[in-house]
Amino acid sequence: MVDQDTHATQALDLVTTRFPHALGALLGGSAAQGRATPSSDLDVAVLLPETETSRREVVRHGGRQVELFLNTLEDIPEFFEWDRARRRGTVLFIYDQGLTLTDPHGHVSRTREQARAFIEAGPPTLTPTEREQSRYSLTCYMDDLRDTPPADRYEQLALADFTLREAAHLLTAHRGAWTGIGKWLPRRLLRADPALGKALLEGHRVVAERADAVPLAAAAEQVLDLVGGPRREGYAHAWRT
């Protein structure tokens, strides 16, 4: 592991070099939490004046890849709304949990307060249509996973991935919790429901290690039972809504 101070120094050097006109900046992600590895990239959020354009960029600085989340002050409220609507809150959590690198005028501090208000409000609930579609999708993945012979490993593994992702989506939504992708999926899933989240993750691991789909399918059915059970015959979805 590389210490936080080293990452913060690298990130601040990037900000002062590339964005000398920045209104403030934060270091987020694993680096801000002391969980980064020597090869981890850095997540850096930069507040820009209104003359700039909000965007996302990936650059290399000092031999390290850096993912930049660039937003103007004017765009921040709208961007936070968009980030919340995805139910992942990627940039919201950078501002909530990140390490302030520079904040000469207090803009970062005030923006962090806005982010925390969004996070405390929680992600939006699924609409009835979204919930039913997710129930149906998870039921299909679960049924196919149960029906796939262990010898068909490519198909079994693909179905296990889709079952886990859809179950995580439905379970976090049911718990009113934030979801995530990549390494953040297990972190957010365990936070939303430690017991059932672990059952899903353990079930996925068992498929990978032993080609046994039974535990994952059983955990997925527990998720479905929380939201009305599996969705099969009778399901309908309009092309236009």
Protein model, in words:
The structure is a single chain. The chain is of the alpha+beta class. Helices cover 55% and strands 13% of the residues. The chain has 2 domains: 4-121, Beta Polymerase, domain 2 (2-Layer Sandwich), CATH 3.30.460; 128-226. Helix 7 (153-174) crosses helix 8 (184-192). The longest helix has 22 residues, at 153-174. The N and C termini lie far apart (49 Å). The mean pLDDT is 94.
Total of helices: 10
Number of domains: 2
Strand content: 5-15%
CATH superfamily label of the largest domain? Beta Polymerase, domain 2
Strand order of the largest sheet: 3-4-2-1-5
What does the largest sheet look like?
5 strands, mixed
Number of strands: 5
Assign the CATH architecture of the largest domain: 2-Layer Sandwich
**What is the level 1 CATH name of the largest domain?**
Alpha Beta
Shape: elongated
User: Ranges with pLDDT <50 over ≥5 residues?
Assistant: none
Taken in chain order, the helices and strands follow as HEHEEEHHEHHHHHH
At CATH level 3, the topology of the largest domain is: Beta Polymerase, domain 2
Q: End-to-end span in angstroms? A: 49 Å
Mean pLDDT figure: 94
Write the layout of secondary structure elements.
Blueprint lengths: L3 H15 L5 E5 H4 L9 E7 L6 E7 L2 E9 L3 H10 L4 H8 L1 E4 L4 H15 L6 H20 L5 H22 L9 H9 L1 H17 L3 H13 L15
Parallel strand pairs: 2-4
Antiparallel strand pairs: 1-2, 1-5, 3-4
Helix pairs in contact: 3-5, 4-5, 6-7, 6-10, 7-8, 7-9, 7-10, 8-9, 9-10
